[in-house]
Amino acid sequence: MNQLQGSCLCGGVRYRAALPVSHASHCYCTMCQKQHGAAAGSYANVASAGFAIEQGAHLITEYVSSDEGRRGFCRECGANIFWRSTRSPDRIAITLGTLEPEYAGPVQRELHTDAKPAWLPHA
Ligand SMILES: [Zn+2]
Ligand SMILES: [Zn+2]
């Protein structure tokens, strides 16, 4: 398989992204925690040129979370689809949890670990 595929919770949005993934990450920043309602936002960083919304582009709302941050989600079901920065328009970070099949690659980076919540289970 030479690409990743994913969809939102309601199935209205479907996308694909060309490989390779430059890196995958868990981001523990407080904005990711708020948006995902979880300990982290988990992402695969890919080239934006290879990213395409195949279905449901009209359902995607982009929340402007900072000067450069844009967080795309499905307005029907609330699923977070991607994060991108206007400072690096050539890259886009797609959410690991929306990938189908399940993401099989490694997660190389943990970001903003200073904000990692204490209620995460410890290995
Ligand atoms: Zn949806
Ligand atoms: Zn974050």
Automatic annotation (TrEMBL):
Source species of the chain: Duganella lactea
Family listed: Belongs to the Gfa family.
Domain of life: Bacteria
Record keywords: Lyase, Metal-binding, Zinc
Family annotation (InterPro entries): CENP-V/GFA, Mss4-like_sf
Pfam families attached to this UniProt entry: GFA
Transmembrane segments: none
Protein name, as recorded: GFA family protein
Domain CENP-V/GFA per the UniProt entry, residue ranges: 4-120
